[in-house]
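Late entry, evening session. Most of the bench is empty. Finally got around to the prediction I had been postponing all week. Sequence below, unchanged from the version circulated by S.P.
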Amino acid sequence: MMRFSKISIKQLIGVVTFSLITAALSSACSESNAADHVSLEQARAEFESGKAVLVDIRETREHKTGIAAGAVLLPMSELTKQPNLLPKNPDQPVLLICNTQNRSKATLQLLKQQGYQNIRFVDGGMSQWAAKGWPMVVPQ
């Protein structure tokens, strides 16, 4: 006999939302081109110089491992609920970062459909940021 853990409706909605976004965007991943991504080094330089906004789309539990100081925290599962965390100007340079680049690559296509044209995903993601020993902070 299978036993299932009790989960709240809110948790179930979060899981379903995340799953639907991921499924809907999975086919979009193959549509990106060279202009859609940026190296980790270039992303850091643009972010730290103020030329681009870095948006960390990892889930909240992942942020606890550390983030780039000053990054906008917008979990992928919250994109449709908190669009106000993205720059108002769709021409402002935006860099999407997740753990390895898979979610940020998929999210790029969704945001392009919403009018963001100056948007790229970061090759390597936060896993490589951390591996390089670059500065990270734990959000409050």
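Two things to note before I forget:
The chain has one domain: 9-131.
The CA atoms of residues 87 and 121 lie 16 Å apart.
Will write this up properly tomorrow.
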